[in-house]
User: What shape does this take?
Amino acid sequence: MAEKSQSPYPLAPGNGHSQSDEESVMAHSKELKKKKRMRCLLYIVLFAVFQTGIILLFALTVMRIRNPKFRVRSASFVDTFDVGTEASPNFTLRMNSQFTVKNTNFGHFKYELGLVTFAYKGTTVGQTTIGKARARARSTKKVDVVVDLSSPSLSNTNELGRDISLGVIPLSSYSKLDGKIHLFKVIKRKKSAEMNCTMEIETASRILRNIICM
Assistant: This one.
């Protein structure tokens, strides 16, 4: 019998394993790309949340503009300190006062000329002016002024006589400084600093005590 003819070239092996490897590589590549996209998306979301937090913090702190505070800080009596008696109640005092303008804002407070009034149980006994100036951002400005206090304007001196006998003269002070908060040299917001304080003059020791400001 004649022998079967053989091909001079060997048959190529089947490509089943080759296709399987290629599919595995492609699937792995798609998975990596998907993970990269998810990671990028996560970074974008985190950055957006961070930016939102910064904006909210900025709005709640820097951009929140409050009224400054105007207070009586201290006082002393040096030159004139004349106080009558219970039978002849009167007083004439010269008080070296120190006021403060506390500005907690991130912009400076520029205020106009102001008037501070001191009263004894509702009756004015002295006034002084505060010159226009500027309180720097997040700082407290101290203002020293001299105030002359006298009682001739009092119509009823019986209460004053009793207070003098007790050695304590109660006073109150009130004022309002109108001005503007200047923020970043662009934003200007009208604000005012109001004073509403009570205090006592101790006649024996010539001191101002129990200063309480609202």
User: Anything to note?
Assistant: The radius of gyration is 41 Å. The CA atoms of residues 154 and 199 lie 18 Å apart.
